[in-house]
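Title: Prediction job returns without error message
Component: structure pipeline
Severity: low
Priority: P3
Assignee: unassigned

Description:
Job completed but the reporter wants confirmation the result is attached to the right record. Sequence as submitted:
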Amino acid sequence: MKLDDVKNILIVGLGLLGGSYAKALTRNGFDVNVITLSQDDIDYAKAEGFIADGTTAVDPELIAKSQLIIFALYPHTFIEWIEQYGHLIKSGTVVTDVTGVKGCIVDKVQNMLPSGVEFISAHPMAGKETCGVRAADDSIFAKANYIVVPTNRNTPDGIRLCCDLGRALGFRDVSSLNTRQHDEMIAFLSQLTHCIAISLMCANGDPNLVRYTGDSFRDLTRIANINDEMWSELFLANREALLMEMDGYRDAFNRLYDTIKNNDRDAMREMMRLSSARRKTFNEGEKLI
């Protein structure tokens, strides 16, 4: 099946990402329905015109008619949903997700789904500091990356459809990693950065900081306004990889600490030059994409 052949898309979970997906897909002409917990969220999305309809009940008919199902749920909720209702998904359906960890998800879900249902995992590297469907905004995809995470159980058609979905959503770049590579990369690029922002905000409780701060502090701590329920689950689900990256960061921080403590300006400047050179590759990469 090609994405062009898909008419009916079901999104399970209408939060920030589920809502942003719905906006992008509806704008591209797809018929988008949702299953989510809150009727108020469904009413809002319908009034705003970015879903066709929705239900708070698990509707077997709606699931059966959906050719593509996107799960925008927390990892444990996603697994629990598939355990209870995965048998309702018909053969020929393609399933994907938005979960931020893969090692604890992909094999379990693939093993639980009925024969003929293909689960091809993906990770949209996009978000906001606010959560919920009222914060949904598909413009967040325009400068973001989309990672497809296939296994040897996925078909070329399924992988292609998932890649095409990322492009249809408007992501800047679509790439592919296996589950181990994904979780190791995410531990550094996403989870560690959130750990740093959290630690920085917890390091000084002076209530007057906001009166004196500049852009550097604001930029560095933007992601410290965090969804503690979701991120604590993601940190623990990827515990080993994240702890390894935290150890690496601690080593680098201690090296910088020692250059200052020992008045070693040459070593300090060497670290700064390395930092600048590596950051430039991001700027150059962004220009190429």
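Comment from assignee: result matches the submitted record. The mean pLDDT is 95.
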